Amino acid sequence: MNKVFDKLKPVFEAIAANKYISAIRDGFIACMPIIIFSSIFMMVAYVPNAWGFYWPDNVTNTLMVAYNYSMGLLALFVAGTTAKNLTDSKNLELPKTNQINPVAVIVASEISFVILSILPLKTGVDLTYMGTQGLICAYIVGLIVPNIYYVCIKNNVTIKLPAQVPGNIAQSFKDLIPMGLSVTAFWLFGVGFKAATGTLLP
Question: d(Cα 6, Cα 9) in Å, to the nearest integer?
Answer without folding.
Answer: 5
